[in-house]
Amino acid sequence: MKQNFVQAYKQAPWRQQLQYAGIFLAVLLAVAVVAGLYLSISGRTATTGRQVQMLDSRVESMKLTINDMQTELAQISSAKSMYARSKELGMQLMDPAEGLYVQVPGYQGLTAFNPSTTKQVQSSNYPEILPEYTSTLVEWFQEKINAQLTMEQVRP
Fold first, then answer.
1. Is-contact 81 75, C-beta < 8 A?
2. Residue 121 backbone phi and psi in degrees, to 5
């Protein structure tokens, strides 16, 4: 009877092979999905990394261009260069005594900075730093210990 019971619940060999093949294909499919996700993420990461490299090279290129332009501006605006260009344009140095000054009615001229005319900052009644924050940790401990000692002396 026991043997008949086992035989009744034992599956056919072709069913076992089909189950093993299904399990194998399911594992293979799971590995393929994980590998596909990995490749997709790796591809996007590589593309983004390459874009970052290209942008970095553009930044460096622009920095070099800016430095070149700053150097050119410094050369153009140097005193020696400005003097040579003014000579080419037919300009000459002028004696201040020969200058023509025009008075403009109502123009007061430039005034010097006078710090006394600026608004004074009103001081507040409150200190800038609270007294709690002006003592050190050691002083705070000493205050607490002294307070505790005085409390014990008062309690007798």
1. yes
2. -75, 130
